[in-house]
Amino acid sequence: xxxxxxxxxxxxxxxxxxxxxxxxxxxxxxxxxxxxxxxxxxxxxxxxxxxxxxxxxxxxxxxxxxxxxxxxxxxxxxxxxxxxxxxxxxxxxxxxxxxxxxxxxxxxxxxxxxxxxxxxxxxxxxxxxxxxxxxxxxxxxxxxxxxxxxxxxxxxxxxxxxxxxxxxxxxxxxxxxxxxxxxxxxxxxxxxxxxxxxxxxxxxxxxxxxxxxxxxxxxxxxxxxxxxxxxxxxxxxxxxxxxxxxxxxxxxxxxxxxxxxxxxxxxxxxx
Length: 271
Fold this sequence. Notes:
- The protein is α+β, with helices and mostly antiparallel strands and 271 residues long.
- The chain has one domain (5-48, 67-270): phage-related protein like fold (Alpha-Beta Complex).
- Helix content is 21%, strand content 32%.
- It has five helices and 13 strands.
- It has helices spanning 87-91, 97-124, 138-150, 165-172, 187-190, and strands spanning 33-36, 43-48, 69-74, 77-86, 127-128, 159-163, 195-197, 200-204, 210-211, 214-221, 225-240, 245-258, 264-270.
- Strands 5, 6, 7, 8, 9, 10 and 13 form a seven-stranded mixed sheet that branches.
- It is flat and about 85 Å long.
- The two termini are 37 Å apart.
């Protein structure tokens, strides 16, 4: 049970409760490869290299591509969260303390998933697009497009870019983004949604890391990132007699890993 529960003990109290602002779960699970593994096993993600073809003379041998093969391995980690809910304290409030605790724990687990994905992307990012003394502007956007093309990333609808709220606002201020000549749906009119422009899906995310006044945006091609799962979100709600409390618990078993550095980019932006 939270040690601040006594602040909600009833005198006359609105039955509605404000749950602290928090990002509601993972925003990134669909942006990378996923694999379910057997408990106790490390996850292995195969990589298949590039190849080339060449000419063959009459009755000559066909050129052999001999593409490189490799394996990226990641070990899954376990993450837990819990909250005690005192039996007598529940009688002194008129809110659904159990429901609020369960919801907050589930959202926290989702944020942990994004945290691990962001850490894996930063660890493998192969190139930096721009410098942290500049905002996110049209020049940076076009540099990112160029970097994806220079890396031979295919136009398959699987390119993602994460921007912090400040960089997201700067993205919306790019003339082409707010013009019907280029956008079928104007973000200024439609509110926040994933924004698809020049083959890149832009996502606003406030979990990106900041150092001083520089916050790192990230971009990747979906096959260049992966996550391994032993167990998706699981939860329990149990009575703990020796504490005279219910205990809400959530847990996940997962880890994220970068697969290919040339498909992941970091975008340091001035905050």
